[in-house]
Amino acid sequence: MTSNVRTGIDVFLNNIAHRMHGKRIGLITNQTGVTADLEGNIAVFRRLFGEGLCALFSPEHGLYAHVQDRERIGNFIDPESGLPVYSLYGLEESPSDSVLQDLDILLFDIQCVGVRFYTYLTSMSYTLKAAAVQNMPVMILDRPNPITGTRIAGPMIDKCLTSFEGACETPVMHGMTLGELALFLNETSELNACVEVVPMEGWIRSMWYEDTGLAWVSPSPNMPTVDTAVLYPGMCLFEATNLSEGRGTTRPFEQVGAPWIEANRLTTALNARALPGVRFRAAHFLPTFWKLQGTTCHGVQVYVTDREAFEPIMTGLTMIKQILEFWPEDFQW
Asked: Taking every annotated instance into account, which residue ranges of this chain make up the domain Peptidoglycan beta-N-acetylmuramidase NamZ C-terminal (predicted)?
């Protein structure tokens, strides 16, 4: 597979891996941790470092990114590598002191989606805090921001509303890679961690993910495509409402609806607003799980016609405003 960009793991393997020999390594990852040839990092590191790879850590959705949203995950033994997998979304949300004491370095290799309310960012922040206590170095193998590194939008988080889903003081769309965020948070939050970022080669901030030539590996069950990631900053706002945001369908975050919506009426009104870079189609769907499971929903499917012009957060807020105007008695936060 030919790509225009070399991610942190490929740069690491070519230039830095020799520094790891003799060290006890902990790897924080999920199924997105692959090389340009789509080989998983666990297999690569086991072959390269042998027993030097001592422990695995997994974020929300698990090591295989297959567990649904907000489902807590326990520790287990990875059946292929035989390594212990410590969940960062279970009873503990950061690597424990007792586990870190048996390691020399942590490697972090996960694809994120460029938005504050995605918990991999929180897991990285909590990992930096835990590692700082143990004076343990953390190496971030950087990956692209899939929705470009040029778009910054949405408010900063209200400190009294922070949670695991939104723990970091950034705008909704922060325009940074996880490596850049690690350095930013380490300084602004005074984490005092020993952080080293392995940068990408060939990545340009204006690139959408497809421009990199890299294959998209779903970072969570409801993030199947780059198109989903483009819509996510605005459509995720519907998670806080009584409408379905499309979870439990083949188009999560691409369609929203509820049993009481008049699909054609809403579609006509939204298209009349002529929002930049987007059109709406009347849609009807049946979520198989999550909100409104087993209930036919009526609403809209969102089609991005021009990514450069599209404003996902403004689009999501405008949709909510229109629904409130039409159905104030039915809509609920």
From this structure: 230-333
